[in-house]
Each structure stands twice: as C-alpha cells, then as structure tokens.
Automatic annotation (TrEMBL), chain A:
A Gene Ontology cellular-component term: endoplasmic reticulum membrane
Family, per entry: Belongs to the ERD2 family.
Organism: Ziziphus jujuba (Chinese jujube)
A GO BP entry: protein retention in ER lumen
Residue stretches spanning the membrane: 56-77, 98-115, 121-139, 151-169, 181-202
Keyword Glycoprotein annotated: no
InterPro entries per the UniProt record, alphabetical: ER_ret_rcpt
Protein name: ER lumen protein-retaining receptor
Length: 215, 10
C-alpha cells in the first residue's frame, strides 16, 4: 500500500459519501445519472467476486464491502425509494449504457490477463469503470445548472483514478515485475474522459462561479 | 483462504 493508492481509495470513498449525502440530505437525485450508478454497481460486483475466496487484508475486504454496499444502496434508492425515485428524470438520462456493458464485455473476452471466469470479469470491470462516467458527464452537459454536491461528486470520482495513476507509476518504479497494463491503460482513459470536466471545474473554481459545461 | 497479490488493488 502506498500513499497514492490510499489517497485514491479515500477520494473514491469521499465521492460515494458525497453522493449519499446529496441524496439523503436533499431527498433528491436530480442531476444524478442512474445509468452511471448502475454501471458502477456492475463494476464492483464483477470485480470483487474474489471477496469470499481470496483474503488480501482487512482493509481490502472492508472497502470492497463498502463499495458494493453503497453502489447497490444508491441504485436501490434511485429506483425504489418512494421520495427519491420521483426526482429521477429519466428523460435526460438517455445514454444507451447497455452498449458500454456489451462493448467492455467483448473487449474483456479478447484482452485479459488469464482466460478464466474471474479474470475475464475482472478485466470487464476495469474497462467498464473507465467508461461508466459517460452517462453522468452527458447528463451534466444536458442539465445546465447542476448543484454543487453533484459537481463535487464527479470531481472526487475523477480525482481518485488520477491518484491511482500515480500509484501505478510508483509501483512500476519500486516493484521489479510490476506490470498492471490493463488497469493502467484503462485508468488513463478513465481520467482522460474527465479532462474537459476538470478544465471547466478549475475555471469555475478560479472565477468563483458555478460550473458551466458547454452544451 | 489463499493469500494472493494478483489483484491486491480495489
């Protein structure tokens, strides 16, 4: 464990807590893409299949349970909570995310570390996580004025994988045979997708104005 | 429980 990875995990945890806070405090999920949340639930379930078979550390197991639990709770809340579900605007959340699931699964069938059930699903979850934010970014661009908590949620979600890139560089430099290419390349793509969001986030922060993404 | 380091990251 290195500081970059720990910072990444904490930033990831913060992003999920910010989202839960927004939904719980405002009893609303307006501006949040249910499709992105569903993709994240699939990512965590597909990636943490080894939860009960491989023990790495208490930290690892606890964080996996938290990520799976929170992502399922958010999807449940947005779909079934009698108050919150009414604030979900499916007319703007129209990204066809099933194509992302299919595309990532097909890619995982061809590019993986080992052709085993668990490894193919692990690669699938890595690819899917890289593109899972797309429905949310599209929704942000569609719904002009976005509340602050939603913007913070997307910011922390983007920042966490940037920390992971530093972690992979650090591990590549310090561990002899560290070759985590699937995760590193997908992580670069994932962070690059946030590039324009980060740019407009920084501009809005500098001008102390609300985030305005170009439509 | 086998200890693996194949995917030790979250």
């Amino acid at each position: 464990m290195n500081i970059f990875r720990f910072a990444g995990d904490m930033t990831h945890l913060i992003s999920i807590l910010v989202l839960l806070l927004k939904i719980y405090a405002t009893k609303s999920c307006s501006g949040i893409s249910l499709k992105t949340q569903e993709l994240y639930a699939i990512v965590f379930v597909a990636r943490y299949l080894d939860l009960f078979t491989d023990f790495i550390s208490v930290y690892n197991t606890v964080m996996k349970l938290v990520f799976i639990g929170c992502s399922l709770a958010i999807v449940w809340c947005m779909r079934l909570h009698r108050v919150v579900r009414r604030t979900y605007n499916k007319d703007v959340d129209t990204f066809r995310h099933y194509f992302l699931v299919l595309g990532c699964f097909l890619l995982a069938l061809f590019v993986h570390e080992k052709f085993t059930f668990q490894e193919v699903l692990w690669a699938f979850s890595i690819y899917l996580e890289a593109v899972a934010i797309l429905p949310q970014l599209v929704l942000l661009q569609r719904s002009g004025n976005v509340d602050n908590l939603t913007v913070q949620y997307v910011f922390f979600l983007g920042a966490y994988r940037a920390f992971y890139i530093l972690n992979w560089i650090y591990r590549y430099l310090t561990e002899p045979h560290f070759g985590r290419w699937i995760a590193s390349v997908a992580g670069l793509v994932q962070t690059a997708l946030y590039a324009d969001f980060f740019y407009y986030y920084f501009i809005s922060w500098k001008n102390n104005a609300k985030l305005q993404l170009p439509a | 429980l086998k200890l693996v380091d194949s995917h030790d990251e979250l």
